[in-house]
């Protein structure tokens, strides 16, 4: 049953037939057909027309249950605060939100006394630019590790009009940036989300599955080029958040001793 569920995620798209699922799951067609029929009665799969099936409501319920208690919000926020102090920037945690099309949502932030008006972003921009996976280091750090089918869906969407002057308008350059992210493990952004602000982000993964990203933003006048110290701090925080997601505390009160 789990191998067939994983086959849906590997294939992407909305619905698939038993044959395609069998090849992806490395099972014979008859076995997959029996699993699909059993799963339909349990709400795990939904039968559509022309012999196609899609994942049902019981599948995301399992994921929601698994994510409901991990990581602990207090421990995650403590890591963001430590990142803010270590870098002198604004720290954010974004999570992948697939409902309504793959996008990102801000789950937490550590911004000190800032009220974010200094970013120069309108409320509309927050709802467009900050949700996009193709704009900003935080978005691209997630997009780089998603299946190609989901990447294609994201690239089919236009660049938000409110994006900064550094946003990738060309899909070829955007895809090349995703390759660089996978090669080095982090993303750099130059005035992508807002003019005058540069970024550094790293993906947060749980057992090979990208869940989100952690981001540091600093004014361009302060961080024209991202120093190694900021990159290392962002990568450490992403790794510590991943440990929290797997039930491995980073340290007392959520503070990682490596950040000190």
UniProtKB/TrEMBL annotation:
Per UniProt, residues of the IclR-ED domain are 58-248
Source organism superkingdom: Bacteria
Pfam families reported in the protein's UniProt record:
IclR_C
* Keyword tags: Transcription, Transcription regulation
Fetch the InterPro entries from UniProt.
GAF-like_dom_sf, HTH_MetabolicPath_Reg, Tscrpt_reg_IclR_C, WH-like_DNA-bd_sf, WH_DNA-bd_sf
Q: Where is the signal peptide?
A: none
This one is known as IclR-ED domain-containing protein
């Amino acid at each position: 049953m789990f191998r067939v569920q994983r086959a849906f995620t590997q294939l992407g798209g909305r619905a698939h037939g038993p044959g395609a699922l069998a090849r992806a799951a490395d099972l014979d067609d008859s076995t997959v057909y029996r699993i699909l029929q059993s799963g339909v009665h349990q709400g795990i799969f939904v039968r559509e027309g022309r012999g196609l099936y899609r994942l049902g409501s019981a599948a995301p319920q399992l994921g929601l249950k698994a994510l409901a208690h991990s990581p602990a919000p207090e421990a995650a926020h403590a890591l963001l605060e430590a990142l803010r102090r270590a870098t002198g920037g604004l720290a954010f945690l974004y999570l992948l939100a697939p409902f309504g099309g793959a996008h990102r949502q801000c789950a937490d932030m550590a911004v000190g006394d800032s009220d974010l008006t200094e970013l120069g972003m309108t409320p509309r921009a927050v709802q467009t630019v900050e949700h996009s996976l193709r704009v900003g280091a935080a978005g691209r750090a997630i997009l780089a590790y998603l299946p190609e089918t989901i990447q294609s869906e994201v690239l089919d969407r236009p660049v938000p009009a409110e994006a900064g002057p550094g946003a990738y308008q060309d899909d070829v350059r955007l895809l090349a940036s995703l390759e660089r992210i996978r090669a080095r493990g982090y993303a750099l952004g130059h005035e992508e989300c807002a003019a005058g602000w540069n970024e550094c982000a790293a993906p947060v993964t749980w057992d090979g599955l990208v869940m989100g990203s952690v981001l540091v933003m600093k004014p361009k006048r302060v961080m024209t080029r991202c120093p190694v110290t900021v990159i290392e701090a962002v990568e450490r925080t992403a790794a510590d958040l991943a440990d929290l997601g797997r039930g491995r505390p980073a340290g007392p009160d959520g503070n990682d001793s490596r950040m000190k």
